[in-house]
């Protein structure tokens, strides 16, 4: 069994979530049916929605269940865009592709004008740039969208401040909290209240995904403020406030709720435990390979996800390192996407001001609920050898480059 250090990609389902799923799958009934069998399914569904809402600090009615995080982000961004007259979308640099590809599609097909907001060297949104963009003709801004925490480098954004800036300008904010959920406390109502969000301005929509917290793949949620105006993407039977039609997946919702409840109950102890492991992993990596540079916020600043370590390794490709570690039985990630099988330099590191070369040798190591000291030890033991081999492979690649 490989040592699994890629919890940000997906984390193993929790036993309570598997048990809840298998049990609920054998229950029949469409929650929209009038008869008692349907009403029993509806009760299970609504209890699950309440439990998920309790972990997000929102009302149950504000939880719109979706087919995963990507759908939630699409609904949040396209839905808000289509519900408002403005054309401009303010987007933080270094977002997940669920956001990047959605706003680029809106620009290509729906006349949206994208304004990328710069990040600082740690991956934090530059607030004065956001304020400046918001002050310039706010009536033409459809929405602001930003990650709560970056899925590659783990930097946590000042969401209440961002929401307050959007609220002052009367503009809605969508937050992709998919990487943050299960690693940070999230309180939708408190962020709205603390940032002065009223009606449809400030924080109005927030995306999460179940498989990042030990729930099943294929279910997520958009938390949508009661007062937000949104266009539906999927039309049909009018389920879920007519925002997301379609027969609801009771078993997946019940499993999602079981995972969310368990994660929420253990959050303070688990995240403190993970942060200790993370700090040991970071210190051990830099001691083992002095060429390694930590990307993202310094752990001591408290605005780094407790489960995230992300490094640049000079002189090698992140993918070579990933393959060599995999051969040594350790599963990690580069964190960035491949285009048609060709590794791309990390667009997040580029948004943080790094060169394309620096953005190539990146490695993301992420911890989760099952991670142990032994996992960290296994990674640290395999790393120096893998790095030495990756560096020589990097030189060999250059010697046989197709460019020559
Ligand atoms: C920040 C972020 N946004 C969106 C997504 C997409 O979520 P899902 O895999 O549930 O579609 C992910 C998953 O990698 C993510 O980390």
TrEMBL record:
Describe the reaction catalysed, as an equation: (sulfur carrier)-H + L-cysteine = (sulfur carrier)-SH + L-alanine
- List keywords of the entry alphabetically: Iron, Iron-sulfur, Metal-binding, Pyridoxal phosphate, Transferase
One GO molecular function term of this record is: cysteine desulfurase activity
Which co-factors does it depend on?
pyridoxal 5'-phosphate
Please indicate which superkingdom the organism of origin belongs to.
Bacteria
Q: Does the keyword section mention Iron? A: yes
- The record places domain Aminotransferase class V at 3-379
Q: Enumerate the Pfam families for this protein.
A: Aminotran_5
Q: Which family does it belong to?
A: Belongs to the class-V pyridoxal-phosphate-dependent aminotransferase family. NifS/IscS subfamily.
Stated name of the protein: Cysteine desulfurase
> Which organism does this record belong to?
Microterricola gilva
């Amino acid at each position: 069994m490989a040592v699994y250090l890629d919890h940000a990609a997906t984390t193993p389902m929790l036993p309570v979530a598997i048990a809840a799923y298998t049990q609920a799958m054998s229950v029949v009934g469409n929650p929209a049916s009038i008869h008692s069998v349907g009403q029993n399914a509806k009760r299970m569904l609504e209890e699950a929605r309440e439990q998920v809402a309790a972990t997000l600090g929102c009302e149950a009615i504000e939880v719109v269940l979706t087919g995963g995080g990507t759908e939630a982000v699409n609904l949040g961004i396209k839905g808000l865009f289509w519900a408002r007259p403005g054309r401009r979308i303010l987007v933080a640099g270094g977002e997940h592709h669920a956001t990047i590809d959605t706003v680029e599609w809106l620009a290509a097909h729906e006349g949206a004008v994208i304004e990328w907001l710069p990040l600082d060297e740690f991956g934090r949104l530059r607030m004065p740039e956001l304020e400046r963009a918001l002050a310039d003709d706010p009536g033409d801004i459809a929405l602001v969208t930003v990650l709560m925490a970056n899925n590659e480098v783990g930097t946590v954004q000042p969401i209440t401040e961002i929401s307050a800036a959007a609220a002052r300008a009367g503009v809605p904010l969508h937050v992709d909290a998919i990487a943050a959920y299960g690693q940070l406390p999230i309180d939708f109502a408190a962020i709205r209240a603390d940032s002065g969000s009223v009606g449809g301005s400030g924080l109005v929509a927030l995306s999460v995904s179940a498989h990042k917290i030990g729930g099943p793949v294929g279910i997520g949620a958009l938390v949508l403020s009661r007062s937000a105006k949104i266009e539906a993407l999927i039309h049909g039977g009018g389920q879920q406030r007519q925002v997301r039609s379609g027969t609801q997946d009771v078993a997946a919702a019940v499993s999602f709720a079981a995972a969310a409840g368990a994660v929420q109950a253990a959050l303070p102890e688990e995240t403190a435990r993970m942060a200790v492991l993370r700090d040991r992993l970071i210190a051990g990596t830099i001691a083992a390979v002095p060429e390694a540079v930590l990307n993202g916020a310094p752990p001591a600043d408290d605005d780094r996800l407790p489960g995230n370590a992300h490094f640049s390794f000079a002189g090698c490709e992140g993918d070579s390192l990933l393959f060599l570690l995999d051969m040594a039985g350790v599963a990690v990630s580069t964190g960035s996407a491949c285009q048609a099988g060709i590794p791309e330099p990390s667009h997040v590191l580029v948004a943080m001001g790094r060169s394309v070369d620096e953005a190539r040798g990146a490695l993301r190591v992420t911890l989760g609920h099952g991670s142990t000291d032994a996992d960290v030890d296994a990674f640290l033991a395999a790393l120096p050898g893998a790095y030495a081999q990756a560096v020589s492979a990097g030189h060999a690649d250059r010697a046989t480059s197709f460019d020559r």
